[in-house]
Amino acid sequence: MSMAKKKRKLTKFGRILSDIVIVVCLMIAGFSGWNLYKELHEYQESKETYEKLTPSVVIEKPSTDESGNTVTAPEFDWGKLKEINGDFVGWIRLDDSTVDYPFVQGTDNEYYLRHLFDGTYNNSGCVFMDVNNNRDFSDKNTILYAHNMKNGTMFASIEKYKDASYYDGHKVIHIYTEAATYDVYPVAGIVTDGQDDYVRTSFSDDNDFMSYVNRFVSSSTFTSEQSIEASDRMIMLSTCNYDRSDGRYVLIGKLVQEDNNAQ
Protein backbone atom coordinates (compact mmCIF):
# COMPACT_ATOMS: atom_id res chain seq x y z
CA MET A 1 0.00 0.00 0.00
CA SER A 2 1.32 3.41 -0.92
CA MET A 3 2.06 6.08 1.64
CA ALA A 4 -0.57 8.31 -0.01
CA LYS A 5 -3.32 5.72 0.59
CA LYS A 6 -2.21 5.25 4.18
CA LYS A 7 -2.31 9.02 4.65
CA ARG A 8 -5.81 9.21 3.19
CA LYS A 9 -7.02 6.42 5.50
CA LEU A 10 -5.46 8.05 8.52
CA THR A 11 -7.00 11.36 7.53
CA LYS A 12 -10.42 9.75 7.21
CA PHE A 13 -10.02 8.06 10.59
CA GLY A 14 -8.93 11.37 12.08
CA ARG A 15 -12.05 13.09 10.75
CA ILE A 16 -14.26 10.38 12.25
CA LEU A 17 -12.48 10.63 15.58
CA SER A 18 -12.75 14.41 15.47
CA ASP A 19 -16.49 14.18 14.78
CA ILE A 20 -16.93 11.81 17.73
CA VAL A 21 -15.02 14.14 20.01
CA ILE A 22 -17.15 17.09 18.88
CA VAL A 23 -20.39 15.15 19.47
CA VAL A 24 -19.24 14.07 22.94
CA CYS A 25 -18.24 17.64 23.81
CA LEU A 26 -21.60 18.95 22.63
CA MET A 27 -23.39 16.32 24.72
CA ILE A 28 -21.36 17.26 27.79
CA ALA A 29 -21.98 20.94 27.19
CA GLY A 30 -25.68 20.30 26.72
CA PHE A 31 -25.88 18.23 29.89
CA SER A 32 -23.96 20.88 31.86
CA GLY A 33 -26.17 23.61 30.44
CA TRP A 34 -29.30 21.69 31.38
CA ASN A 35 -28.04 21.13 34.93
CA LEU A 36 -27.20 24.82 35.27
CA TYR A 37 -30.64 25.82 33.97
CA LYS A 38 -32.31 23.35 36.35
CA GLU A 39 -30.29 24.65 39.31
CA LEU A 40 -31.08 28.29 38.54
CA HIS A 41 -34.74 27.44 37.96
CA GLU A 42 -34.94 25.68 41.34
CA TYR A 43 -33.25 28.62 43.07
CA GLN A 44 -35.81 30.99 41.60
CA GLU A 45 -38.73 28.67 42.32
CA SER A 46 -37.69 28.30 45.95
CA LYS A 47 -37.10 32.03 46.39
CA GLU A 48 -40.47 32.93 44.91
CA THR A 49 -42.29 30.27 46.95
CA TYR A 50 -41.01 31.59 50.27
CA GLU A 51 -41.36 35.25 49.22
CA LYS A 52 -45.04 34.65 48.45
CA LEU A 53 -45.59 32.63 51.62
CA THR A 54 -44.22 35.12 54.15
CA PRO A 55 -46.59 38.09 53.60
CA SER A 56 -49.56 35.71 53.49
CA VAL A 57 -48.89 34.28 56.97
CA VAL A 58 -46.83 36.95 58.79
CA ILE A 59 -47.96 40.43 59.84
CA GLU A 60 -45.38 42.82 61.28
CA LYS A 61 -47.00 44.65 64.20
CA PRO A 62 -45.39 47.90 65.39
CA SER A 63 -44.90 48.43 69.12
CA THR A 64 -42.82 50.55 71.49
CA ASP A 65 -39.91 49.17 73.52
CA GLU A 66 -38.78 50.25 77.00
CA SER A 67 -36.72 53.09 75.51
CA GLY A 68 -39.66 54.46 73.56
CA ASN A 69 -38.35 53.21 70.22
CA THR A 70 -40.73 51.83 67.63
CA VAL A 71 -40.11 48.16 66.96
CA THR A 72 -41.98 45.53 65.01
CA ALA A 73 -42.96 42.07 66.16
CA PRO A 74 -44.33 39.36 63.88
CA GLU A 75 -47.77 37.84 64.25
CA PHE A 76 -48.33 34.52 62.51
CA ASP A 77 -51.37 32.87 60.99
CA TRP A 78 -50.76 29.52 62.69
CA GLY A 79 -53.89 27.98 61.24
CA LYS A 80 -52.93 28.78 57.66
CA LEU A 81 -49.37 27.53 58.16
CA LYS A 82 -50.64 24.20 59.48
CA GLU A 83 -53.17 24.04 56.66
CA ILE A 84 -50.40 24.45 54.08
CA ASN A 85 -48.26 21.82 55.78
CA GLY A 86 -49.35 19.59 58.66
CA ASP A 87 -45.67 19.05 59.55
CA PHE A 88 -45.29 22.74 60.48
CA VAL A 89 -43.61 23.37 63.85
CA GLY A 90 -42.52 27.02 63.98
CA TRP A 91 -40.73 29.93 62.38
CA ILE A 92 -37.04 30.88 62.62
CA ARG A 93 -35.70 34.39 61.98
CA LEU A 94 -32.22 35.92 62.11
CA ASP A 95 -32.47 39.69 61.69
CA ASP A 96 -30.43 41.28 58.90
CA SER A 97 -30.07 37.98 57.07
CA THR A 98 -31.94 35.70 54.67
CA VAL A 99 -32.94 33.34 57.50
CA ASP A 100 -36.68 33.95 57.78
CA TYR A 101 -38.45 30.65 57.26
CA PRO A 102 -41.05 28.24 58.58
CA PHE A 103 -39.64 24.96 59.82
CA VAL A 104 -41.15 21.50 59.95
CA GLN A 105 -40.60 18.02 61.33
CA GLY A 106 -41.11 15.09 59.01
CA THR A 107 -41.12 11.33 59.52
CA ASP A 108 -37.43 11.14 58.58
CA ASN A 109 -34.45 13.43 58.01
CA GLU A 110 -34.48 12.98 54.23
CA TYR A 111 -37.77 14.21 52.75
CA TYR A 112 -37.32 17.92 53.47
CA LEU A 113 -33.83 17.95 52.04
CA ARG A 114 -35.56 18.09 48.64
CA HIS A 115 -39.03 19.47 49.27
CA LEU A 116 -40.16 23.03 49.92
CA PHE A 117 -42.56 23.96 52.69
CA ASP A 118 -45.53 23.58 50.33
CA GLY A 119 -44.41 20.08 49.30
CA THR A 120 -42.91 21.04 45.93
CA TYR A 121 -39.92 18.88 44.95
CA ASN A 122 -36.92 21.22 44.96
CA ASN A 123 -33.31 20.70 45.98
CA SER A 124 -33.39 23.90 48.05
CA GLY A 125 -35.52 22.02 50.56
CA CYS A 126 -36.94 23.35 53.80
CA VAL A 127 -35.72 24.06 57.32
CA PHE A 128 -36.57 20.99 59.39
CA MET A 129 -36.27 19.67 62.93
CA ASP A 130 -34.49 16.40 63.63
CA VAL A 131 -36.97 13.52 63.61
CA ASN A 132 -35.78 12.42 67.07
CA ASN A 133 -36.59 15.72 68.76
CA ASN A 134 -39.72 16.65 70.68
CA ARG A 135 -41.58 19.46 68.97
CA ASP A 136 -41.96 21.43 72.22
CA PHE A 137 -38.19 22.06 72.57
CA SER A 138 -38.09 20.06 75.80
CA ASP A 139 -34.94 18.17 74.74
CA LYS A 140 -31.56 19.32 76.01
CA ASN A 141 -30.54 19.77 72.37
CA THR A 142 -32.94 20.51 69.50
CA ILE A 143 -31.46 20.31 66.00
CA LEU A 144 -32.61 22.25 62.94
CA TYR A 145 -31.17 21.48 59.50
CA ALA A 146 -31.19 23.39 56.21
CA HIS A 147 -29.08 23.63 53.09
CA ASN A 148 -26.43 26.28 52.53
CA MET A 149 -27.61 27.39 49.10
CA LYS A 150 -25.10 29.06 46.79
CA ASN A 151 -27.53 31.89 46.08
CA GLY A 152 -27.40 32.87 49.76
CA THR A 153 -30.75 31.39 50.84
CA MET A 154 -31.81 28.87 53.50
CA PHE A 155 -29.02 28.54 56.12
CA ALA A 156 -26.30 30.23 54.05
CA SER A 157 -26.23 33.07 56.60
CA ILE A 158 -25.60 30.62 59.44
CA GLU A 159 -22.28 29.65 57.90
CA LYS A 160 -21.26 33.32 58.05
CA TYR A 161 -20.52 32.78 61.74
CA LYS A 162 -17.23 31.34 60.44
CA ASP A 163 -16.21 35.00 60.33
CA ALA A 164 -15.83 36.07 63.97
CA SER A 165 -17.05 39.59 63.17
CA TYR A 166 -20.43 38.27 61.95
CA TYR A 167 -21.32 37.34 65.51
CA ASP A 168 -20.95 40.98 66.59
CA GLY A 169 -23.99 41.98 64.54
CA HIS A 170 -26.02 38.78 64.96
CA LYS A 171 -26.18 37.90 68.65
CA VAL A 172 -29.74 36.57 68.79
CA ILE A 173 -31.88 34.27 66.66
CA HIS A 174 -35.66 34.21 67.11
CA ILE A 175 -37.88 31.13 67.10
CA TYR A 176 -41.66 31.47 67.12
CA THR A 177 -44.18 28.71 67.78
CA GLU A 178 -47.88 28.81 68.53
CA ALA A 179 -47.15 27.95 72.18
CA ALA A 180 -44.11 30.14 72.89
CA THR A 181 -41.46 32.53 71.61
CA TYR A 182 -37.77 31.75 72.10
CA ASP A 183 -34.52 33.63 71.76
CA VAL A 184 -31.43 31.68 70.77
CA TYR A 185 -28.10 33.20 71.81
CA PRO A 186 -25.23 31.85 69.66
CA VAL A 187 -22.49 30.33 71.83
CA ALA A 188 -20.17 28.50 69.41
CA GLY A 189 -19.83 27.33 65.82
CA ILE A 190 -17.53 24.73 64.28
CA VAL A 191 -16.55 23.44 60.86
CA THR A 192 -16.79 19.65 60.65
CA ASP A 193 -18.04 17.00 58.20
CA GLY A 194 -20.82 14.50 57.71
CA GLN A 195 -18.75 11.66 59.14
CA ASP A 196 -18.58 13.40 62.52
CA ASP A 197 -21.09 12.06 65.03
CA TYR A 198 -21.97 15.54 66.29
CA VAL A 199 -25.75 15.17 66.62
CA ARG A 200 -27.12 14.21 70.04
CA THR A 201 -30.50 14.92 71.63
CA SER A 202 -30.08 13.30 75.06
CA PHE A 203 -27.33 12.94 77.66
CA SER A 204 -26.60 10.63 80.57
CA ASP A 205 -26.02 13.46 83.07
CA ASP A 206 -24.91 17.08 83.40
CA ASN A 207 -21.24 16.22 82.98
CA ASP A 208 -22.00 14.43 79.74
CA PHE A 209 -23.96 17.44 78.49
CA MET A 210 -21.29 19.98 79.45
CA SER A 211 -18.54 17.87 77.87
CA TYR A 212 -20.58 17.92 74.66
CA VAL A 213 -21.04 21.71 74.82
CA ASN A 214 -17.37 22.36 75.59
CA ARG A 215 -16.35 20.37 72.55
CA PHE A 216 -17.95 23.08 70.39
CA VAL A 217 -16.77 26.02 72.48
CA SER A 218 -13.13 24.89 72.37
CA SER A 219 -13.15 24.81 68.56
CA SER A 220 -15.48 27.73 67.88
CA THR A 221 -14.92 30.12 64.98
CA PHE A 222 -16.02 33.05 67.17
CA THR A 223 -16.03 34.05 70.84
CA SER A 224 -19.47 34.55 72.35
CA GLU A 225 -20.65 36.72 75.23
CA GLN A 226 -23.01 33.89 76.15
CA SER A 227 -22.48 30.45 77.63
CA ILE A 228 -24.50 27.28 78.07
CA GLU A 229 -24.81 25.88 81.60
CA ALA A 230 -25.84 22.41 82.71
CA SER A 231 -29.40 23.59 83.43
CA ASP A 232 -29.85 25.17 79.99
CA ARG A 233 -31.39 23.85 76.82
CA MET A 234 -29.68 24.46 73.50
CA ILE A 235 -30.40 24.74 69.80
CA MET A 236 -28.13 23.35 67.09
CA LEU A 237 -28.32 24.72 63.54
CA SER A 238 -26.59 22.47 61.01
CA THR A 239 -25.84 23.34 57.39
CA CYS A 240 -23.40 22.56 54.59
CA ASN A 241 -19.85 23.85 54.36
CA TYR A 242 -17.94 23.88 51.07
CA ASP A 243 -14.44 24.20 52.53
CA ARG A 244 -14.06 20.43 52.74
CA SER A 245 -15.57 17.26 51.34
CA ASP A 246 -19.02 16.59 52.83
CA GLY A 247 -18.42 19.62 55.06
CA ARG A 248 -20.76 20.98 57.73
CA TYR A 249 -21.00 24.21 59.69
CA VAL A 250 -22.68 23.66 63.05
CA LEU A 251 -23.86 26.53 65.26
CA ILE A 252 -25.02 25.99 68.85
CA GLY A 253 -26.90 28.47 70.99
CA LYS A 254 -28.60 28.83 74.37
CA LEU A 255 -32.39 28.53 74.16
CA VAL A 256 -34.35 31.00 76.28
CA GLN A 257 -38.15 30.98 76.35
CA GLU A 258 -39.47 34.54 76.27
CA ASP A 259 -43.20 34.14 76.75
CA ASN A 260 -46.22 31.94 76.35
CA ASN A 261 -48.28 32.61 73.23
CA ALA A 262 -51.10 30.19 73.94
CA GLN A 263 -54.54 31.78 73.67
Shape: globular
Q: Percentage of helical residues?
A: 25-40%
Estimate what percentage of residues fall within beta strands: 25-35%
The ordered H/E elements are: HEEHEEEEHEEHEE
Strand order of the largest sheet: 3-4-5-6-9-10-8-7
User: Low-confidence spans: pLDDT under 50, at least 5 residues?
Assistant: none
Class of secondary structure makeup: alpha+beta
Let me know the number of strands. Answer: 10
Give the CA-CA distance, first to last residue: 97 Å
User: Would you tell me the overall average pLDDT?
Assistant: 87
Number of helices: 4
Characterize the largest beta sheet: strand count, sense, and whether it forms a barrel. 8 strands, mixed, barrel
What integer value in Å does the Rg equal? 25 Å
Name the features:
263 residues, two-stranded antiparallel ribbon, 28% strand, globular, 4 helices, alpha+beta, 8-stranded mixed beta barrel
Task: Explain this structure.
This protein is an alpha+beta fold and 263 residues long. It has four helices and ten strands. Strands 3-4-5-6-9-10-8-7 form an eight-stranded mixed β-barrel. The termini are far apart. The relative contact order is 0.12.
Describe the secondary structure blueprint for this structure.
Layout: H1 3-57, E1 58-64, E2 70-76, H2 78-84, E3 88-93, E4 100-104, E5 127-129, E6 141-145, H3 164-168, E7 173-176, E8 180-193, H4 206-218, E9 233-241, E10 247-260
Parallel strand pairs: 4-5, 6-9
Antiparallel strand pairs: 1-2, 3-4, 3-7, 5-6, 7-8, 8-10, 9-10
Short description:
The protein has helices spanning 3-57, 78-84, 164-168, 206-218; strands at residues 58-64, 70-76, 88-93, 100-104, 127-129, 141-145, 173-176, 180-193, 233-241, 247-260. By secondary structure, it is α+β, with helices and mostly antiparallel strands.
